[in-house]
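Entry type: protein chain
Record version: 2
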Amino acid sequence: MAATTGRQPPISPLGAFGRSLILPGWGQLEVGRPARGAFYFAAESVFLFMVFKSDGRLSAAKEELPPNEERISNRTGQRENWIVLAGFIAFLSGLDAWVSTQFWDFEPSIGPPADGSVGIALGFKVDFP
């Protein structure tokens, strides 16, 4: 994992996007967000597992005698749905990695107001060049 030193992110936003398209979660890992990376990797793994499982069910439906066209159509639709979900989560992972790179050093603080009043205060540091 790359170190986050200085004002520059450890990886370019486009590099993080591309890495997460190749392997969901890789871009988040490079930016220092391992929990988010693990989420995307796990979600993609589940969706790909379901693609293969639905493909097996489709193959079994095609081998039935006599062929049941409604079942084949339903299994084809299920497989297509899982493929779309797998592609969507890969794209979402890439988009999240791109955003994570843009805000890689953003660290908000939440706590009681500085003046002692009742409530919650949100604070963050802004560096001007």
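Comment: The first strand starts at residue 109 and ends at 111.
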